[in-house]
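Listing S7. Sequence submitted for prediction.
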Amino acid sequence: MKDIFSLRLYTRVARLGSFSAAAREFGLSQSQASRVIADLEGELGARLLNRTTRAVVLTDAGAQFLSRIDPILVALDEAEQSVREGGDLRGMLRMSMPSSIATRTVIPALASFMAAHPELRVEVMLGDQPQDLIRDAVDVAIRLGRMLDSTATARLIATIPRVVVASPAYLDLHGAPDKPEALRAHRIVGGPASMVPTAWRFERNRQEVTVELDAHFTATENDGAVAAAKAGLGVTSTSEWSCRHELADGALIRLLPEWKLAAIPVHAYFPLGRATRAAGRAVVEHLVAVIRRDEGADW
């Protein structure tokens, strides 16, 4: 059997569907990476990948091999970690999360975690859009909203309030709504933070109101929706974490504070389930501890 390096390289080529992309990660040329995988296939006596001018695609044998070696590589990481003095984590930890929670909450909280594990490298993949977590070898994905992937292991790490906000300049021109139904007369900024993009649900004294709304401006990332509201383009609904600084400095004003919207759950997803590396589990424990400690603090 080829060395562990070959197996790790194969998993990245298989997930990325590209020799050149995987080669860059490992500091190799494309031809070197291709030669390593060809040697691996020769030793196994099976073609693992179909190469075309446009893509690299797993064969049936390659897919089966990938599913078998994934837990083995994780187990090797765990074995190394178990005997390492001091319990320091090392290697690469890949995380995926929306930009707003990353820049405002998670990345600041990672400083003390990385100081405790100086040999650990962390790569944070930002974006509000769905990703192929297995292909991208993500160890931990932080997601806001209801759980969408029932196949992944998940842990609820926080529940955060949802707020409705607008800028002072917008409110000077259009006035503030005095009840949820009055939002229909306002310009609405849409974004991925909305659990149901076309409807906002409010509750007060056990009275529930659902307001169907059409967005006049839409952003594909939540930070864009917050920026649009701050610029006076309209009213938006988002998590309190996403606009805490703007509320504190008066750039945004909270509307309808006596009405509650459904809180937003924050989950940590482990795409590989029980095979998740120790670093993935450790960083989530750290985030939970920091969030509990700083609950209500200005992130």
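Caption to Listing S7: primary sequence and predicted structure tokens for the chain studied. The two ends are 49 Å apart (CA to CA). The longest helix spans residues 60-83.
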